[in-house]
Amino acid sequence: MKKARTIIILVVLVLVGFGAFRAAQVISAKKEEKKTGLGQIPLVDVAPATQGLIEERILRTGDIIPHTQVTIYSKVQGWVENINVREGDRVIEGQVLVTLDVREAEATVGQAQANLEAARARLQQVKATAEETVQTQIQQTKANLELAEADLRRFQELYDKNFVARQQLDEARTKYNVAKAVHDLALNSLRQKTWENDLALAEAQVRQAKASLDLVQAQLQNLIILSPMNGGVTKRYVDPGTMVKDTIPILTLMDLGEMKMVVNVIEKEFLSLQKGQPVKISITAFPDRVFNGKIEVINPALELQSRTAEIQISIPNPGFLLKPGMFGRAEILLRSNPQATLVPIQSVLSQVNQDFVFVLQGEKVSRRPVRKGVVRDTVVEILQGLNPGEKVVTAGQATLKDGAQVRLTLEPKK
User: Fold this and answer.
1) CA quadruple 180, 181, 182, 187: dihedral positive or negative?
2) What is the pTM of this model?
């Protein structure tokens, strides 16, 4: 215990002695400055502007979500008979997922098929008999006309010999005129093919029956629900025996072969992005792995209130490692300049929204306005106002003015 206390006392004495030595050095230096007149010239550090690689990147965080997600509903109301999948099952496009009770729909389809067959039989009958019927009518009306014409001639002869009254002759002429009108109507029906109206009606009845059959068959097909995509079942909402309709969800499917992340970018960043641009994705659950994505969708318009635009990043997911709901970070390279002009970060000063540096020119400094670019770690990219190789003040510039004479604490690095 005494030995430790002795060591501590010795350390304190050494530190006190070193402090006294440095104080004596400072006092001696100030006296020397007063003698030589150098104390009035500011003492500064300088460093040369260099060239190097600078990259402008943006980092955004977001949730991993499936590239495609579908919630399955029934188009028609019915009782669930079978559900062939559960959560975690993989499905392919066209696979039967759910079957509703089809008995009533199948009976309706059978009735519609019978109606269609009856309409087609009626059409065939009309096609086979329509023209034949008109020809028969023509033959019958022609025979009636010939008979009426013969009676009219006979009554005319009898009337001329005063064997019959005028009234009987007029009756014979009236019968002839009626028979001729009926025959002319039959001939007109043949010329105009009036049976085609019956044919058109029969064809319309066939089309109507076919449409009714298509409708009930579609309703029957709606009772068998197929998968619209390749993916996995992530949620099952009902069990067999449940009555469902178009407002009740049955299953949720997700395409897990490709995931995506949706992030927002500001106006300046938005202008530098392109569709297909690569993106590095880091996932919290996989700290030692980087996933390669790309920009798939860039919203063409900025949101007015936030002045940001939404972009969608697609991420391949081989082996289905990425899961919906995981948290990740997207890193996007906006710009890369391998010959950027770089200066130490402490050399750039700001005043009244203007950035500037002090450039060493001989024994004096010149205040130089500059335009900054990317700030990275300890250096700043200078886009305008400075050339590589020029020396800038990095320390002691707080009280400097344009054209001030300075002294260097150390020789500047070559």
Assistant:
1) positive
2) 0.58
